[in-house]
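thread: overnight batch results

M.L. [08:02]
morning all. the overnight job finished for the chain we discussed friday. pasting input first so we're all looking at the same thing
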Amino acid sequence: MGKHSRTLKTLRDIALEYGSSEQPDLASMARELGRVVHQNAATLANRLAPLRARQRGFERWLLAERNKPALSVLVMAWPPNHLTPVHDHAGLWGLEVALAGALEVQSYARDSASGDLRMLGRDWLGPGDGTWFEGDENHAHRCRNLSRHDTALTLHVYGGDLAQFFAYEQTGPSGGWIAQPQQSRIAGRLRG
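M.L. [08:03]
and the structure it wrote out:
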């Protein structure tokens, strides 16, 4: 278990180090986290196998948090074919790195006047791949586990506590978007 927990601790420590300013270099953080994931894929798979086997739906696990500057590090479990609604991140910056499995991330821009959303593009993440967003209140995205059979795991680093956010639902094929307030839940705490 020693090497397994060291790898998770290394990811936590990288996130805390690179996230030590209000506006961190997210590209550098993603590159360093991705390097560790690529080098330790088998170790991470073993360490996190219990999360992949839980089969309790989408879960968020806290790995670390800090108040100044604000930062939270989470591991998320995505059940097979799970799709989130389009959602924002309450103006926080954020970074996501795939640990196991594959995730699709569709990015949207929200028009601040009308509230309408426009899809900007999509990324496909495999183990060690990352994507990020700056602290923009008009950024939103939707994530989906690309597997029909396996739980995917991702590491998320946010510039604060994402306790509350908005999910967006389109009223029809060409209709407007309705914002619904949401609250995050933490399934538990992981030890690094």
